[in-house]
Amino acid sequence: MSEQSWIAFWQTVLLLGLGSYLVLAIVIVPFGARDIYRLFKNLDARDPEEGDQ
Amino acid sequence: MLETNFTGWDWLIVVFYLLGTATFGIYVNRHVHSASDYLVGGRQAGTALSIASFIGTGLGLVTLMYASMDGFNRGFAYLFVPLVAMIITMGLGASGFVISRLRELSLTTIPEYFEIRFDRRVRVLAGSICVLAGVLNMGLFPKMGATFIAYATGLVDSGESAETIVNLITSLLIVMVLAYTVLGGMVAVLVTDYVQFVILSLGLGLGIWMCLETPGLGWSNIVATWSAERGEAAFNPVHPDSFGWTYVIWMICLTFAASLCWAPEVTRALTTKDERTTRRTFFLGAPGFFARFAIPALWGITAFVYMQQHPEMSRYFGLDGNTVAVGHSSQAMPLLIGKIVPSGLLGLLVAGLMAAFMSTHDSYLLAWASITSQDIIAPIKGVKKLSDRDSIHYTRVTVILIGVFLLIWGIWYELPESVWTYMGVTGTVYVSGSATALIGGMYWKRASSTGAIWGMCGGLFAIAGLFVGSLQSIVGESIAAMISAESVALAVYGLCILLFVAGSLVFPDSTTAPEKESAS
């Protein structure tokens, strides 16, 4: 691959990789907050003696 | 020259943010009712929270530092590391290779698997090598984090000695992270990882935007400068003046093995509510593994261009061709961030990155401490499982002991020239042998306990990669040219596989794998 091809390659990889991360972050923020709420609720509702699932 | 845009207001933002995070971490302790809650969050984490924690754990300030150092020294070629990490993580999530089985067994730690599949000796050995490699690997973290804070905030320009400032910051951060890891456990880790994922995503985006929008920088200028200074080697990782094939192949082996058994990150596979969530966490979280290396590498790449444009800086970093600046590359990215991000936003960014420092530490501390209590202390005491009280007690004591070690190591240890290579080598000590035993144990019926022990001991040879200079001086010139940290580490992977297969064939176990797993 020539130098120019490598530059185009990394530009594409960065756009795809960081674009995916942006989408991921937008989805994770609200759903992560929901999971924390559920985590606390489940931990408090669980009988400590029941052990792992 | 070392002054930045960091002001008193920025300090206020940092202090409030850190106090808030620590208080929150301690507060969530009220939801911890058992050892399972403390060590693996009761295995109740959903997909989104698992992904946030998965990324939050890997996205530490130390990752930002070493990735930016390699970006600064090697240019765009370093981006092959995040690309490999993303592809491997995505592949594991899609296939469920190893990680599905780990979750199905409801393990607390990875070495626990070795007792189920092999025997107790293998578990204790795996736990011991894992903690040795992990704590050594982590020993560099505090100084790296403190270096960032000292240079991004401009504290080193205050007249005090840079070393004193770095040591004071190191001590303060370790005390804070110990407090909420000891009190909160995995629930605190999961929740604070989430908060830090949110703040860091904003901070990373801000950093990239400033790199691309600051006058004199921008994509075209950055690419043109690197092209003029280094040519194709700045973009092609296998170019002879760049990393080269040996390094690239070693990175593929290391990333693959670490994804399967590097405790702090694989622990996320154990904390999810079911096997399906584990696979989704790996698959959907893969872009996070790309971003965690790629964004700081881009900051380092941009720092190189920025320093080139300022003659005084260029001299300081040895870029003018007339000066030699050993060990300064770790200061480039923090200085760039401190100089191009405006006050206020800089406070938020530094707060997020300091939180990232703590986020990595709490996960690592908990991972090594839980392995010590579950896989070393419990088998030595002759009990199958420690009581909840003992388990939490020993984990907390170990967390504090590791914290004390980090404090001493962080203050006395000098940063090596290549931090990423050091970390790769110390990581190889454990992951080369353990990944071999893990994969062999799951997918090869004839794998035996002796093979696993031999394979894991083979990984210890990677320590030689830390003494490459001494090795080169002993052997002849022609052989010395072939010896490097990456060639030693890569050879160790082959050695582990060879020893594992040989040990298994020569000394087979008396009981078969399915019999052992069903008996457990």
Main sheet overview of chain A: none
The amount of helix of chain A comes to over 70%
CATH topology of chain B: Sodium/glucose cotransporter
Largest sheet of chain B: none
- Please mark out the parts of chain B with pLDDT under 50 across 5 or more consecutive residues, or reply none: none
Overall average pLDDT of chain A: 81
Query: Any low-confidence stretches of chain A, pLDDT <50, length ≥5?
Result: none
- The count of β-strands of chain A is 0
Relative helix content of chain B: over 70%
Computed CA radius of gyration of chain A, to the nearest angstrom = 21 Å
The termini of chain A sit apart by 52 Å
Domain unit count of chain B: 1
Number of helices of chain B: 24
Query: Rough shape of chain B?
Result: globular
Shape of chain A: rod-shaped
Greatest interface? A-B, 38 and 53 residues
Oligomeric state of the chains? heterodimer
